[in-house]
Structures are given as structure tokens and as C-alpha cells.
Amino acid sequence: QEQLVESGGNLAQPGGSLRLACAASGSTLASYTIGWFRQAPGKEREGVSCIGVNDGDTYYSDSVKGRFTISKDNTKNAVYLQVNNLKPEDTAMYYCATSLFLCGSPTLSRPNLFASWGQGTQVTVSS
User: Fold this and answer.
1) Ramachandran quadrant class, 28 (left: phi over 0; alpha: psi -120 to 50; beta: rest)
2) Which pLDDT tens digit goes with each residue over 76-126?
């Protein structure tokens, strides 16, 4: 049974950095598009980045472009999200999820296209 587990969330100061990880068991992440989403209290779930089967296929939402970097390590069956220059508005629960659709805005804007989800890791940005 496929299971995704996120980690790396923490309390960080504005301008700080974190590295979020998404580890999988029961499936091979290299076979899927992996998306990172976030949801703040009272707000809709927002897709922030995805990486496709080919490592060069990446996409970032405008809100994180230039600050976040997605990568994957197929040997560890894990996907990472390096989050830099954190802002208070980045505070949210961050989730990873798998999809059979191509990485890009049309896919990332539709959370229902992602089949498996982790439980999330909390990122709080505050001074």
C-alpha cells in the first residue's frame, strides 16, 4: 500500500530556510509526477511546485518561484522542497502527493488529479 510521509517542517524566521522531504513506501516516486501543496488555516489548498518523471520537468507557482526548489532522489525514493527566503505568508501545512498527469500548471491547479497524499508537515514563519 502506497504511503507518503512528509518531514522537515518547523518554525523558521522570515528570510530563513527549510528543506521539506517527501518519502514514499509501497511505490516508486520516480514513476509519478510529485506535487507539493500547502494549506493555511481558512484558505484553499494551493499547489506550489511539482516535478515530473523527467527531472527537468518542474513547475513553480508564482508565489514561490525563485525561492523554492524541488528535487528528487530516486535512490532514496524521496522528493525534496528547498524553501528559502521564507515569508510569513508561507506559513501552512505542506503536503506532497502523486499524480499520473504531467507536471505543470494545469495539473497542479487540480488537486483532484493527485491520488495519494501524505499527512503533511507544518511550516510556520514568524519572528
Assistant:
1) beta
2) 999 999 999 999 999 999 999 999 999 999 999 999 999 999 999 999 999
Pairwise CA distance, residues 81 & 50, whole Å? 9
Provide the phi-psi class of 88: left if phi over 0, else alpha when psi is between -120 and 50, else beta. Answer: alpha
Sorted by sequence, the CB contacts under 8 Å of residue 31 that are 6+ apart come out as: 53
Q: What is the mean pLDDT of the chain?
A: 95
Strand partners, 41: none
CA angle 10, 28, 67 (to 5 degrees): 35
Q: If we measure between CA atoms, which residue out of 90, 98, 86, 69 comes closest to residue 3?
A: 98
What type of residue is 52?
Answer: G
Q: Can you tell me the distance from the alpha carbon of 42 to that of 75, in angstroms, rounded to the nearest whole number?
A: 37
Nearest in space to 107 (alpha carbons), one of 25, 37, 31, 22: 37
